Amino acid sequence: MKANPPESSILNYFGLSLVLVGGFLFSRIRGGKAEEEPAEGKRITLHLHDAENEKLSATPEQSDDEVLNRTTKVDGAEVRQEMGARGRGVGILLALISGCFYGLTFVPVIVMQDNPERFPFYPTDGMSYIFSHYFGIFVTGTALFVGYSIFKKNKPTINNAITLPAFGGGLLWAIAQSSFFIANDNLSQAVTFPIITTLPGCVAALWSIFYFKEIQGKRNFILMAIAVSITLTGASIVGLSKVIKL
Question: What does the domain layout of the chain look like in residue ranges?
Fold first, then answer.
């Protein structure tokens, strides 16, 4: 891919640094603490640091997720068991791998846009590649699901309750990804990626506070306010680096 630097590398790097600081502060926010003593209607979280030591085993009616995230009743309180460090580490690793693929998703399109001598009949605008981009994702997702179903001997674990929300989330993502193509055409990846990969985290954090109420406590609210402010400032500076030269 050809280099497409912003007008001001200083502003771009400074804004990116603020975005990274904001991301680090987001990672320091913790969910609300569980009640110390069981009480009717309360929820308590038990962290399983080693699932094997707990000798958890699935019944034919339970999936692996249901075993590792089991909800029971203790003294009238709802108790939820969660995976410990091992499961969290696997989740972080898979998230990093997913992030690498996500970061490379536009590379084939931009290579064709940047090299008209090699691809003389290919369009130069990003919107022309949206159908092939989504169709490739659809084919890949279908192939993975078929393979998973074969691996599970035609008994895949499917949560029926998330079917419609998943379609709704996919629709929102499709609109956002289309906007991402347009943003790349007008701003370049050096500007769009720091903005688009961090601002959704701010939106998700607001959902955690006002809807799911996962984030509670004065300390977390202060950290959240600082993280959002720094992230928004950094994203704004990154955007300005495209048009302002220092």
Answer: 9-240
